[in-house]
Amino acid sequence: MKGIEMLPFLTKEQKELLETSERNYKRFARVYFQILSISENEAIVKVWQLENQAKRYLSEKELIDRTKAVFERILPESVQLHVRPVAFDRVELNNFSITDVEVKMNRLGLKPKDLVHLLNINKSQLSLILNKERGLTKSSKAMLYYMFKYIENEPGREPDISPEVVLKV
Amino acid sequence: MTHLFEAIKQIAKENPDGFTVKIPSLEWVIDGYIAAYLETQNCFGDEGLLRVLEHASKHDKIVGGWKNKDNKQFYFDSDKQFPGKEDAIEFGRKQKQIAIFDLQTFREIRL
Fold first, then answer.
1. Which of A90, A84, A53, A49 is nearest to A68 (CA)?
2. Helix, coil or strand: residue A27
3. Is-contact B95 B35, C-beta < 8 A?
4. What is the pLDDT of residues A34-75, one digit of tens each?
5. Stretch B26-44: mean pLDDT, rounded?
6. For B23-51, what is the mean pLDDT?
7. What is the pLDDT of residue A133?
């Protein structure tokens, strides 16, 4: 486990427990742990999940719960565990790029003018957002990511898009 | 067997973080409770995979594996899947496992 060297006080049994848990969560759930820091009274552990075969994803609350169980009987009682969870959609969101925007637009049959309409912005604003040299800003990423998620997950609902696209579908 | 051997090796190569599949279909095991057989502990490399395939063929036809980052070896095991928790826990204890895994809730159950 990344950062395990920060826990030199671990017994052999505790180390084996941690390594087994790390292996199991990685193998079965694509959940990963990293010990970020440890002090006399606090330990900070990051936990995140990547894409998995079951397409099942834990919420931040569930990731925190799993992490606390992993570190049970591991940390000294005086050390409070703080968990930094990153749920799968956050990872996907953080990695969302202009290439992903293009892929989704193709898949959904959306043209730039549709995005202009859906997002209620003008063409030059859209060009600025999708500037490849600049890349997506944090807020643009979130805006586009969740917009596409909404469209993809609402079967039967036609987004309010231009007539040409409706006819094409 | 050769075809299955090569197929599992390929799955292993593509999934160094781990995998668990049914044989011979190679369908991923994604529900129930899963526990490993003691008999296939510490099976690694080609020889280990052959042993695991032989064991799994005679038992529950589930094979899994993961890459050990310390020694870069690929470890394999033969596994059993249970619909119910209690049976899985009992089996896991008999097989001297440290934990079993609930694939539905993605929760490890320490024994």
1. A84
2. helix
3. yes
4. 999 999 999 999 999 998 999 899 999 999 999 999 999 899
5. 97
6. 97
7. 82
**Chain A residues within 8 A of B107 when measuring between CB atoms:** 66, 69
Q: Check if B27 contacts A (Cβ < 8 Å).
A: no
Portion 5-64 of A in contact with B at CB < 8 A: 16-17, 20-21, 23-31, 53-54, 56, 58, 62
Domain boundaries, chain A: 4-87, 96-168
Indicate the number of domains in chain B: 1
Distance CA B75, CA A94 (A): 32
How many CB atoms are closer than 10 A to CB B65? 24
ipTM reported for the complex, 2 dp:
0.96
* Nearest C-alpha neighbor of B20 from the set B63, B52, B57, B53: B63
Q: How far is CA A105 from CA A95, A120, A133, A150, A164, in A?
A: 17, 17, 19, 13, 14
Q: Count Cβ–Cβ pairs < 8 Å, chain A vs chain B.
A: 50
Reply yes or no on whether the pLDDT at A169 is more than 60.
Answer: no
Chain B residues lying within 8 Å of A17, measured CB to CB: 98, 110
Adjacent-strand bridge partners of B13:
none
Q: Which fold has domain A4-87?
A: GMP Synthetase; Chain A, domain 3 (3.30.300)
